[in-house]
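ingest -> validate -> predict -> emit
validate: passed (alphabet ok, no gaps, 153 aa)
predict: started
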Amino acid sequence: MKIRLLPIACIASAAALLAGCTIATRNSSACEQLMRDKLADPATGMAADTLRVSHRGAAIRGSRVVVEGAIEHRAGVPDAAASDALAASAPLAASAPHAASDLEVAAKPATPKKVNTPAAAECTFHGETLDVFRWLAPAQLAAPVEQAASEAG
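emit:
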């Protein structure tokens, strides 16, 4: 009888441990997806930016999850008026004797510089149900709890 009890106990404990790991993984994925959805919301003003996740950390049984990464946005993108003015001056510059090589240099659009802003969000779960989501960084998304409560009601 003792021989059968040990394998059954091992299998039961392994199943319990795996169930806890899958909840933590599911909660981490859910928090990351919610972070992406909140960032894509037009109200944030960052809908065109890209979120790059670098780390997901979960507490015991996935009850608290912190997702860290960076929000990547392009700075220095030329606006349409500047590119239209450059296109309008192209025929005039091409008629000059030595301006053809200058035109090639000027006609190439400048590659926009990528600016990375650190980002982090915290999710608190009760089982697999989300209780609280809040931004930890950047500052424009992370509002104090009192301020968020006063805006809500």
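The helical segments are 2-40, 80-95, 99-107, 145-152.
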